[in-house]
Amino acid sequence: MTVVPTGSPSDAELLERLRAGEQGAFRELVATYQSAMRAVAFAIVGSRNADEVVQDAWLAVVRNLDGFQARSSLKTWLLTITANTAKSRLRQQRREPLLDDLPAPHGSVDAERFADNGHWQTPPGHWELDTPEALLAEAELRECLDKTVASLSELQSSVLLLHERQGLTPQDICNLLDISLSNLRVLLHRARLKVFATLEHFEETGQC
Amino acid sequence: MLTCRDLVARSSGFLDGHLRLHERLGVRAHLALCGHCRRFIRQMELSRAVLRHLPEPDAPELEALAERLACERRQR
């Protein structure tokens, strides 16, 4: 039986250069995947140990390069190694309740936005800046968003980054972080509402 | 009939396409009638797009790490 590789052709090409020990290939690998690896480590061991876990995971990657079978994508393989490295490091329970919702700089879409009958009391207003490019051209807003993401619990921010920025599927995130799909959805939804509140605040006031 | 509060609670599910058929129809029926919620959904979509485009912080140690990993590999 032939195993059909699921890795992309560019994975195969990169892998060959990695196996040859080419520094440029490692630079490409680190630049492409390190932030996703960091988000996985962050979710499992927290901010204090995340960098160390990522370093250990990289060394494990180098050690296991010859064993990589291309049955999964390079990205899935790297993130699985990171999650396993993080889990073996984890001796204590998660330090935070799973769905803990910490206060964000600009709140969320709270109950007081709605009247008793459930309709908007304070409906969303018009946004002058209405494309990602226009919004991200504002340096102050970029900083502001970084603060909002930093205010999330470690698990919540990791879920947000892995889903929205890294484009991982919900199933992959659940497998890596050992959380249920319903918890993932709750975490993601609450995080998005906080990001929404930050953008709304900036649109209304022009400041962070 | 869904309220606006219900719609906000279902907005991520709607955008991610994992609502059940009757929930999805309920959201669509509400959106057909409610301009505030149409605006909210557009702004939630924009929020997601902004996060996708938010630049990643630079990794200053990139080159040093790449060098170290390449070196480890060649020594094996």
Q: Mind explaining what this structure looks like?
A:
The complex is a heterodimer of chains A (208) and B (76). Chain A has 208 residues and is mostly helical. Chain A contains nine helices and no strands. Chain A has two domains: 9-89, RNA polymerase sigma factor, region 2, helix turn helix motif (Rna Polymerase Sigma Factor, Chain: A); 111-205, Orthogonal Bundle (Arc Repressor Mutant, subunit A), CATH 1.10.10.10. Chain A has helices at 9-19, 23-45, 47-64, 74-89, 132-136, 139-151, 154-165, 170-177, 181-205. The longest helix of chain A has 25 residues, at 181-205. The model of chain A is unreliable at 1-5 (pLDDT under 50). In chain B, helix 1 (4-16) crosses helix 2 and helix 1 (4-16) packs across helix 3 (35-53). The N and C termini of chain B lie far apart (66 Å). The model of chain B has no long low-confidence stretch (mean pLDDT 93). Chain B has helices at residues 4-16, 21-33, 35-53, 62-75. Chain B has one domain. The relative contact order of chain B is 0.12. Chains A and B meet through helix 2, helix 3, helix 5, helix 6 and helix 7 of A and helix 1, helix 3 and helix 4 of B.
Shape of chain B: elongated
Classification by helices and strands of chain A:
mainly alpha
**Unreliable spans of chain A:** 1-5
Principal-axis shape of chain A: elongated
Mean pLDDT of chain A: 90
Q: Kindly state the number of beta strands of chain A.
A: 0
User: Which structural class do the helices and strands of chain B define?
Assistant: mainly alpha
Helical residues, percent of chain B: over 70%
* Rg value of chain A: 20 Å
Number of domains of chain B: 1
